[in-house]
Amino acid sequence: MTKAAPGRGGSLLWGILAIALAIGGVICLLLWAARSTPVAAPHVPRPYEAATAPAGADALVAEPLATPVLLRIPVVEIDTRLIRLGLQRDGSVEVPANPEVAGWFHRGPPPGAPGSSVILGHVDSAQGPAVFARLSELQRGDAVVVQLDDGTTARFRVHSVRTYANADFPARRVYGGHGLRELNLVTCGGAYDAALGGYQANVVVNARVV
């Protein structure tokens, strides 16, 4: 992956990333449609691929770091295995095919490592509530636990729970590193409008490592 140069070029790529993530349905986790098949993501303009991962993410994922395998949030009864999510052919972020399972965006750091780790999941499906159906119920201070494949555990406390309109999704804030070890949990939110392509907002839970 080509890294963006600092300065104007870097800002341009971040702008492209923000637009691509917002309009590509990347975060607004696609429902099964008719809710039985996922809505196809629109074309994402190049050079999106050059800006898909936050600055510094390559260095993090190049190291033999542990991979997250389980996510537990007891207060809202979330207990799910985690799959790896990458990029689709159009450059947008993958979403889990199974609405009962959440996924970790592996182009960012794993939970507990420096930077912003991102886990995505569906809010519902044709069969009913999905893995992140109760994500918006979380409150500041709630515990979030991620188990990694090396037997270690990363523990977090919820810092904020916010809902953003799709057009205002803060891609850099969610995917970029900010000198913290944080975890962002993302699902659909707001009103559902089939004519406009589904949910019109995204719920983002930001948690900080304990």
How many beta-strand elements? Answer: 10
CATH class: Mainly Beta
* SS field, number of helical segments: 3
- What is the 3D form? globular
Main sheet summary: 8 strands, mixed, barrel
- Please tell me the CATH architecture by its name: Beta Barrel
Q: Considering DSSP H and I runs of 4 or more, what fraction of the residues is helical?
A: 10-25%
CATH superfamily: Sortase
Q: Report the sheet-strand fraction.
A: 25-35%
What does this protein look like?
By secondary structure, this protein is mainly beta. The chain starts with 7 loop residues before the first helix and ends with a strand. The protein has three helices and ten strands; from the N terminus they run ααββββββββαββ. It has one domain (8-209): Beta Barrel (Sortase, Chain: A). The strands form two sheets. An eight-stranded mixed barrel has the order 1-2-3-4-9-10-8-7. The radius of gyration is 16 Å and the shape is globular.
Structure characteristics:
210 residues, mainly beta, Sortase, Chain: A, 10 strands, 34% strand, globular, disordered N terminus
Short description:
Helix content is 13%, strand content 34%.
Secondary-structure topology with pairs:
Layout: H1 8-23, H2 57-62, E1 68-73, E2 78-85, E3 102-105, E4 115-120, E5 124-125, E6 128-129, E7 143-148, E8 153-165, H3 171-175, E9 181-193, E10 198-209
